[in-house]
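Box 4.2: Ligand-aware structure prediction
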Amino acid sequence: MTAKIVTIFNQKGGCAKTMTTMQVGGTWGMLGLKVCIIDMDPQNTAKLWSLQATAEAPFPAEVLNFAPLGKNFIHKVEQLVDKYDVILVDCPPAIESPVPWTSLLIADYAVIPVIPVLDNVWASKIAEDLIIKARDERPNEVLGATYLLSVMRKGKVFDTCLDSLKEDSKLPIMSSKVGMRNAYPECQAYGCSVGAFGASVAKNEIEAVAYELANQVGLNLKKPKAAKK
Ligand SMILES: Nc1ncnc2c1ncn2[C@@H]1O[C@H](COP(=O)(O)OP(=O)(O)OP(=O)(O)O)[C@@H](O)[C@H]1O
Ligand SMILES: [Mg+2]
């Protein structure tokens, strides 16, 4: 087993990096992958989230707090690749942090969550430039990258911002997207991902993201068995 390494980053704060990591990582875990989530944010949101789970219903991925290690975390991650199918790195928001750059040096794939509002669209340029720099640094390796639209709402302002992201961006935008829904932050209280709540729009939405991303990253996900009638 050699884990694929997926980094979720964007120096912009609050654009749903941790939400994406926990929902996608949890869903991949529920769909049978061995998943490890590396919490690289000193706020430790991912780790705290997973600790809300009970022993009877643990969070469906291992969550490790490597934030105190700073950029040296990559050596620890390299020691884990034989144990998991996929390792997700939840990056901190600060632009001066070395963690997003370091994580791009070991990643197979990078996901940049972006909310379609202008402050996020402006900041995404910085993330995009970092991807381009990392690709230059690793010319013989493939570093895939995509935007994931998150916390989507209806409204003209969001449509306009989305148009401007599409026009200016050099990276693809995933066709699956994540809406603004109460079910997502509710999961923090129970230490789960939306899959644990049963059938819902949020569950369908995250499964669509999880399957699309697995396909792009090269992970083998089995389709869930159809429910018996
Ligand atoms: N799709 C969503 N619907 C509703 N609320 C959401 C959604 N995604 C994220 N949130 C909420 O928005 C806030 C920011 O999300 P999150 O913590 O995932 O962002 P982040 O990019 O990890 O932030 P930071 O930069 O602080 O690490 C949180 O309070 C989270 O619960
Ligand atoms: Mg976060």
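In the box above, the bound molecule is magnesium ion. The CA atoms of residues 27 and 40 lie 20 Å apart.
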